[in-house]
Amino acid sequence: SSVFVLLGLSAKIGQPVFHYAKACDDNATWYTNHFSFRDSDFDVEDPLPFLGRNLMQPLVLFWGVLLSGNEWTKYDFCIGKVVEKNGD
After folding, report:
1. Full-prediction pTM beyond 0.90?
2. DSSP conformational letter for 1
3. Which of 12, 13, 78, 80 is the most buried (most CB within 10 A)?
4. Which residues have a Cβ under 8 Å from the Cβ of 86 and sit 6 or more positions away?
């Protein structure tokens, strides 16, 4: 531990020995914040996107098709739309 004292390094357990430049930390934080690729549909802290996409969106789209009177064949969850007969 005397070597650490001579070099001015911290010998405490759980703390980093070397401290890099603050600019590197800022860049790493920015990168993590912008490119962490968290999926909002499966976020436990915010279930509203999951509920909205899987419960509300199909109901609203079916309601629109039923009011228009068009025939439909299926609801496609992958693209999020009601597939209508002779439609696009």
Report:
1. no
2. -
3. 80
4. none
